[in-house]
Amino acid sequence: MDKKEFQKSKCPDTPGVYFFLGSRKKILYIGKATSLRNRVASYFTNDIKEKRSELIEKMVQEAKSIDYTETDSVLEALILETNLIRSHKPFYNTKSKDDKSYNHLIITDEEFPRILVVRGKDLVEKYDEQNIKYEFGPFPNGQLFKEALSIVRKLFQFYDTKIPIGSEKSKLAKGKIDFNRQIGLYPERQSKTEYNKTIRHVRLFFQGKKHLLLKELRQEMMALAKNELFEKAEQVKRQIFALTHIQDIALIKHDSRVYRDEKNIRIEAYDIAHLGGQDMVGVMTVIEGNQLTKDEYRKFKVNNYTKSNDPGALKEVLERRLKHSEWPLPQIIVVDGSTAQKNAAEQVLRQFKAVIPVVAVVKDDKHKPIRLVGVKQLIEQNKEAILLANAESHRFAISYHRSKRSKSLLA
Predict the structure, then answer these.
(1) Do residues 159 and 116 lie in contact, with contact meaning Cβ atoms separated by under 8 Å?
(2) What CATH number should be reported for the domain holding residue 86?
């Protein structure tokens, strides 16, 4: 297959899974992508042998056509790729690969099932079939799988203890479980029925059945609301929001090291402006591809505070912003302030189960940036855009505050 034939495939610039097909539509190779268009195009370069391998070069030459399946996120592309490779066992995916060292995800067959990451060799040596209820994998890239699982943990709280739940004997083991409950890694104390519902949701997600999972959650939310259990209904609503707006910046970054054009990253910056707590306002500015996207700027009148409380006002603004599911979510959030503002933003994101990295821009007395607080690698790769977004949010917030204050004085 050559570049001209590839161009006929018209792969979209979206996440998904691609298939190189041989004669009679036989699947030769399956891969995942942040951008199907960019990833597939990377196979049609003169140095593919040096960049990938002689085996991949041979696969491209043998291929007759390309097909693809779009997904809503890179995380779902990773899961779909794994499931399809396991089902179809394409020749060029499996040739010369020993998956004994690869990671697998298992769900144990216990009263309170645990979700564990297990090496291929341990899967055979340390676990009997009757101890495993469900198994997914293998996942060849250990680091990528680790990042993916950390995203899943934001969506679902489950146990991953070394021994079955309820068999702990020492105070240390029991204390560790209680601590992990407090920080949101483990679920609150639940009945077996409630916890098994979560396990079912995890299973559906790893089986690539998000549509069925969302259907069940929406039905559950409606039933809770009908019974006037509004707080629980709101929790389910937030879980639905998180599932339909999966933020997988870590996976996108991982993918971008070789293939992805970074120009598409969306950054949202927030700032609060007031005069001693009076006429308090908040704003959101947007940068995409290092360009200001002014038609997506938003203004927020702060309602819950009449005294100076920038972290509290920021929380109010972010809560209102995240309720707009029709607005695209960013890959990075920038806040003006220190760790107090960063912590406030992260608290709101946890409430909405949104996994988005936050960067705080710390200023001196003259309001000049002196340091950035956040993930070091993320800051290094996007420093210029982060500072631009922050400066623009400050300008926009001051402008909005002055306008609102002038109207107040006239009134």
Answers:
(1) no
(2) 3.40.1440.10
Beta bridge partners of 282: 272, 300
Cβ(260)–Cβ(34) below 8 Å: yes
Q: Does an H or E element contain 69, and which?
A: strand 65-70
CA distance 339 to 341: 5
Q: The domain containing residue 84 runs over which residues? A: 3-96
Asked if residue 250 has pLDDT above 80, the reply is no
Whether residue 334 sits in one domain with residue 293: yes
Beta strand spans in 260-389 (E): 266-275, 278-288, 291-292, 298-301, 332-336, 358-363, 369-373
Here the tokens at position 354 are 């949104």
Residue at which a domain ends, from 172, 190, 206: 206
Q: How many CB atoms lie within 10 A of CB 72?
A: 15
Same domain, 222 and 124: no
Please check the confidence at residue 96 and state whether its pLDDT lies above 70.
Answer: no
Per the structure, how many domains does the chain have?
A: 4
* pTM (2 d.p.): 0.61
User: 356 by DSSP, 3-state: which?
Assistant: coil
Q: Is residue 153 part of a domain?
A: yes
At which residue do the structure tokens 């997904």 appear? 71
Judge contact between 60 and 1, C-beta under 8 A. Answer: yes
Count the neighbouring beta carbons within 10 Å of the beta carbon of residue 370.
9
> DSSP letters of 214-280?
HHHHHHHHHHHHHTT-HHHHHHHHHHHHHHHT---HHHHHHHHTTT--GGG-EEEEEEEEEETTEEE
Q: Which of 44, 76, 96 is the last residue of a domain?
A: 96
The top-scoring range by mean pLDDT among 274-278, 284-288, 306-310 is: 284-288
Residue 253 covered by a domain: no
* Segment 15-37, tens digit of pLDDT: 999 999 999 999 999 999 988 98
User: The domain that contains 383 carries what CATH number?
Assistant: 3.30.420.340
Same domain, 401 and 276: yes
Strand order in the sheet with 132-139: 115-119, 103-108, 132-139
Residues 251 and 318: their CA atoms lie apart, in Å, by 24
- What pLDDT shows up at residue 257? 47
